[in-house]
Amino acid sequence: MTTLPRIPFPVVDEISRHCLQEEEPETVHIEVHLPGRLDQPRLRKAFTEALRRHPRILMREAPGNRFRRRYEWELTPDPDVEVVTFPPPGRNALRDARTRALEEAPPLSLSPPIRLEVVEEPEPNPPKGRGELRDQPPPAGSQATVLFLTINHTALDGPACLRILATAAEIYGGKDNSPAPTPTRTQEPPAPPENTPSNWTRPARVAQGRPDPSPGNGLLVTELPLPHRPKGSPYTVNDQLMVTTARTIAHWNREHGESPRPLRITMPVDDRPRDTTMPIGNGTRLLEVPFTPEELKDPTPTLLRRTAQRTRALKSLPRPQLGHGASLLTAPVTPVTWRAALTRGLRKTAAPWTSTTLLSNIGRVPYPLDFGEEAGRAHAVWFSAPARMPRGLTVTTASTAGRLHLALRWSRALLSHGDGAHLRDLFEHYLHTTEVPE
What we know:
Strand content: 15-25%
Oligomer: single chain
Number of strands: 14
Number of helices: 9
Distance between the termini: 68 Å
């Protein structure tokens, strides 16, 4: 019997594995809209080949006894299951695929811990109403395709799996899907801004709306114009999104009678290369950007400049992915089951100090995601990150074809779909206020 290679769980994977909950699965969802159709056998072959070109994704959790010191990933030469599926087309196929992406995590016991669903349905007419989903219509007489990539976040993150999808697109369509060059920005060396709020302060929580009685997460996706930025601005679109998120939540909390409190927004940062050498796994590090209630009232140009200083200074600091405490928690000096119990206990104790929300800005999608002449090139890409309590709300953004693709995802223990729609409208309003005239 061949012994398969194994690798220990990295810190991020182990912490996530300790804290899994059936009610709110740790899934990342990626939704890619193409104007045409894909050939099923050809796509299966291309995606399977892409997995083999990035073998670190072909893994499953290795079995072990309760006294083992580590969880381990077992690397497999081939997938254990058929990763690509084609649900029957239909009126609710898109909605049902989104629901599955939130409620059904690919199991860690089968390689790879992802699945790709290919939904074929005619694009609807653009719905009326502010902030709704407004996809570009496909050519007359054609049928659009939506790719749903669902990821078990204990094993992998969104940028790594987008890299896999870009490789599959290149194999399928025969066109170059290399990443676009990273924009270069001339910036002064970062300096910590004055009066930075302390991260030891207990932050505000997102005020409770009208909870949904069913467990799990809710999701709303929408397409918005990219916010304008004057040429040579000292801030980035990410800083505009950070200010927008902070002011949106502050407004929501005021509406719900909450006293003003400092906000802390978790911001994932990904320093990995985007080409085929990109390490596959959970590769982002988490930073926390604080805001005081007083500074959110400052003039927008002032707040944007201060936010830019703050985010640049945080990015420049060397820091483990989840901080030094997580490294100590995962040191293999005691059985993993003991560390799991300790981690869950500490997570519960530290819940009041957890950041207010998470803003994950993928930025401009770096790959064309061009599947050739018949299927075409992606014109919309959405991501969403898990939204477990105590945060209960995550904001994820990406830009494609000059548009901003926003996903709001929430815990149903905190918010309802109507609450999500109101938060979307607030976000759109405050995003527009960040467009400082030249």
